Amino acid sequence: MTETTRTLKVDFKKCIKAGECYYNHPDLFKATESYYPTIVVSHPSTATEIREAREAAEVCPSGAITFEE
Ligand code: SF4
Fold first, then answer.
1. Confidence (pTM)
2. 31 — phi, psi (to 5°)?
3. Number of Cα atoms under 13 Å in the Cβ half of residue 67
């Protein structure tokens, strides 16, 4: 896989605005005024970004975050 094919996504139909993603990984996600996250880094490429993207997908309580590698 090349760097640009790694994709971080949020399914807003599943998101329950728990905030785990932007509290724990502010480099990848930001909170909006509605408390939904926005993705700052859609295509994680550094080792740190990739590790954080995997962690975010694992800990999201609603399963809204996916990281395709
Ligand atoms: S961790 Fe999951 S449920 Fe919580 S705000 Fe982020 S995407 Fe939504």
1. 0.92
2. -80, 145
3. 20
Q: Ligand 1: does its nearest atom lie under 6 Å from the Cβ of 39?
A: no
> Whose structure tokens read 């509290």?
23
CATH number, domain 3-68, options 3.90.226.10, 3.30.390.50, 3.30.70.20, 3.40.50.920: 3.30.70.20
Indicate the top mutation candidate among 8, 11, 13, 17 to test ligand 1's pocket, ranked by most ligand atoms within 8 A of CB: 17
List, for residues 16-58, the tens digit of each pLDDT value: 999 999 999 999 999 999 999 999 999 999 999 999 999 999 9
